[in-house]
């Protein structure tokens, strides 16, 4: 190995050790709070309003920048929660998961939290500052806009990354609990299409969780496993079911028979009969692009 290669390896090892020290133990992770005065919103050239890049039941996402020049070479955004969906505890927990999973390469970089004071209502709201990925295009939008632009090899790569990322999460005892196309963002690199999971508001560590919306609403959330829709706790198997639903969606556009077969094995009615994330990854890796 040449000197440059050895130097890079040493630096990589140092970074890995630093990450393990800072974020390797979930129970010790505590995100820091950024002073609201240290962020500024990007505004549109035409309307002068903050650049809005996303919306969900949690609230809204806006493009921002640090006023002191930090991370000037990285696009960042803030995920602002409504008072209803983002208590201080909820915000901290989601940020903790982003930090804990940062070494997987499948989540945005988290830069901290912001607390917005509301002296009138005496109810503060919160936001997570994180990396803004690509142009903010979700997999949901990508599927509908790229039908004639994506090769079969690229579809297989996207499916592999979805399984690989989930395998890494499960290896660290994290359940996503809400895997769907709108919660994954796409971007491009020289090597091709890349993706990251972006929403961990319902994720859990070392345990499953129950959902408590009205039963008729829960029944309509078809990306959730049938046992979850019936009130059972989430598990690795329920994440796999949701992953299988994504594989089925990809197959609609990619027309890959082997991927459709894998989706069937991920969405079996009996949770114990479903594939693991690791097995799913290996099966996708072995698909031959005919």
From TrEMBL:
The keyword Kinase applies. CDD domains: PKc (cd00180). Keywords: Kinase, Transferase. InterPro entries: Kinase-like_dom_sf, Plant_MAPKKK, Prot_kinase_dom, Ser-Thr/Tyr_kinase_cat_dom. GO terms for biological process: signal transduction. GO terms for molecular function: ATP binding; protein kinase activity. Residues 47-290 form the Protein kinase domain. PANTHER family: CCR4-NOT TRANSCRIPTIONAL COMPLEX SUBUNIT CAF120-RELATED, MITOGEN-ACTIVATED PROTEIN KINASE KINASE KINASE 19. This is Cyclin-dependent kinase 2. The lineage of its organism: Eukaryota, Metazoa, Spiralia, Lophotrochozoa, Mollusca.
